[in-house]
Amino acid sequence: MTLRSLDDQRIPSPTSRPIDDNAVLSLSEIAYRRLEEAIVTLSLRPGASLTEAQLIDMVGVGRTPVREALIRLAQQGLVEVLPRKGVLVAGINAIDIMAALDAREVLERLIAAEASRRASPRERIAIVETARAMRAAAEEGDANAYMRLDKEFDAAVATAARSPYATRAAEPLQALIRRAWYHFERQDDLVPAAQHHVAFAQALATADPEAAMSASDRLMAHLRGGLLATLGRD
Question: Residue 202's domain spans which residues?
Fold first, then answer.
């Protein structure tokens, strides 16, 4: 996997769904999304040290939105803010990854059950359509598009669940697992993982909480199995 140099110019907004700076998103949200994607996709490498000025230049917004984004990223464990020194991108280690999976599995079961109960018909359709788009991206081998859609999928399920405490707890764990996927170069897992997302979306659409939780469990088991197999090879 080729990683971008820190000397590159600004971090681009996602090409498949560009961020409109004049839309409903705040500048701090724009900064957060761009930095989070750069960290998750390893454009900003684990252990990299950057200055605030570098981040402002790369993201393309002002100092205050970047600082607000960094506070959020630090709370999620993706960066460490070093007073008067800059920002350190968090490292990646197997113990953290497996601990995140343990916690995420429990939260995802709760979120799946609540989304199955509470999602509107329109939300159910959107979740299934996003999962199908993930499968299409996987079949094309477009990992970046797949991962952006994966984040959208998680957000759509979270919105449908209407369980803000669970979804806020799950969000940083989801980012950590996506980052591990990039780190361990799990390109060969795109299509199988996409199929699990489609199955989960279809189960959720039936409004059967037990079916949704079972499908969520199978998806988490698939993620765990793939990462354990990768860790065992390293």
Answer: 94-233
